[in-house]
Write a structure and sequence with these properties.
Strand order of the largest sheet: 12-11-9-13
Low-confidence stretches: 1-31
Helix content: 10-25%
Order of helices and strands: HEEEEHHEEHHHEEEEEEEEH
Strand content: 15-25%
Radius of gyration: 20 Å
Number of helices: 7
């Protein structure tokens, strides 16, 4: 048991997340008219150029310091996937490229220890086996919410084909979001599909839809959460009442779309962006001049994880709950290590006009 706990702590340091933590009426719409010079790709939708308020809104009671201050940005138009990338789509990519995801590859200790504090002991080789993180569905009680090891488990054999471990499968789940995807995996898929990952600003522009200053993808009414997003209802992490009909991950399009036809921009699975995760990025940003098409921080910074490169993920997941992780808000963000993977993180892609004209 002791060695398993050591490995779990190591894996969290290398493969996953920072500590979970868990505001104005709409401005005049400044969305530009649609100007598309290429045919809309199948399964995508156009997000027009617009100016909007990025970051935490004044009335958002769950806003984190890393989401402040809110600042006006202008983002050019782009195409974005209507849904998260599905098992069926990822399966085609894997088949055509014989691709092996990070979660399926052998763990190389010499590489892994570079991302850990000096002197970290090496676990036994029998434990350092390919796998990924899964939510522990058997948690009955927890002592303190700071210790997230209580509800996460490193599962040998867990990957996109076997989301809960070697005895599970995605058979019959082609329309579910693909999970256990690392940054490397998402980038490889994008290269194959002639797509790219959205910046955080592009992601927020898409999530807002026709709005320019709202907390949620559907507006500002928090009471509509259960009708619009797959999140945790009940007492996290010990009891999920599943009032929305789904205890864990849900098929795509199980909930209403936002105002421009995008599904699951809130809840279900976290979505990878191309921005570095830097908790000081907004506070150090020069907002005295117009900001156009921001690409995020120049370097990552997370005081809770200083040994790894982290990126921003957005949208929250089926595990988000107001009592612990209110990340179903548009401005919410968390960091993930570039080689991390879990059963509640996936991605969607975008394409700009220039990419499609090549």
């Amino acid at each position: 048991m002791k060695i398993n706990l050591i490995l779990l702590k190591l894996i969290f340091s290398v493969f996953f997340l920072t500590v979970f933590s868990c505001k104005k009426n709409q401005n005049k719409d400044t969305v530009s008219p649609i100007e598309i010079t290429v045919e809309t790709p199948e399964g995508m939708i156009w997000v027009p150029k617009k100016t909007f308020l990025q970051g935490a809104k004044d009335t958002d009671k769950y806003a984190m310091p890393r989401e402040k201050p809110a600042h006006e940005v202008t983002v050019d138009g782009f195409f974005i996937d209507i849904t998260e990338v599905t098992n069926a789509q990822f399966k085609k990519f894997v088949h055509e490229n014989k691709y092996v995801t990070v979660a399926e590859r052998p763990i190389i200790w010499e590489e892994m220890k570079k991302q850990l504090p000096p002197g970290t002991p090496k676990p036994h080789d029998s434990i350092l086996q390919p796998g990924s993180l899964i939510f522990n569905k058997n948690v009955k009680a927890v002592v303190g919410m700071e210790n997230y090891f209580q509800w996460w488990t490193w599962k040998i054999g867990a990957n996109w084909k076997h989301p809960q471990g070697p005895n599970s499968s995605i058979e019959g789940k082609d329309d579910f979001p693909v999970v256990h995807i690392s940054m490397q995996d998402a980038l490889a898929y994008c290269k194959w599909a002639n797509r790219r990952l959205p910046t955080e600003a592009e992601w927020e522009s898409a999530a807002l839809g026709l709005n320019t200053n709202t907390i949620f993808t559907w507006g500002n009414d928090a009471t509509l959460l259960d009708k619009n997003a797959n999140t945790w209802q009940g007492i996290f992490p010990v009891k999920n009442e599943s009032k929305d009909g789904f205890e864990y991950i849900a098929p795509i399009k199980s909930y209403p779309s936002n105002s421009i036809g995008l599904y699951d921009m809130s809840g279900n699975v976290w979505e990878i962006t191309s921005d570095y995760f830097n908790v000081n990025y907004y506070s150090e940003l020069d907002i005295s001049t117009p900001i156009s098409n921001p690409k995020g921080a120049e370097k990552p910074y997370n005081p809770n994880n200083q040994y790894q490169i982290e990126y921003v993920m957005k949208g929250g997941s089926f595990l988000c709950n107001a009592s612990y992780c209110a990340s179903f808000r548009i401005s919410a963000k968390m960091g993930f290590a570039e080689d991390s993977a879990s059963d509640h993180m996936g991605f969607r892609t975008i394409a700009d006009v220039g990419m499609l004209q090549k």
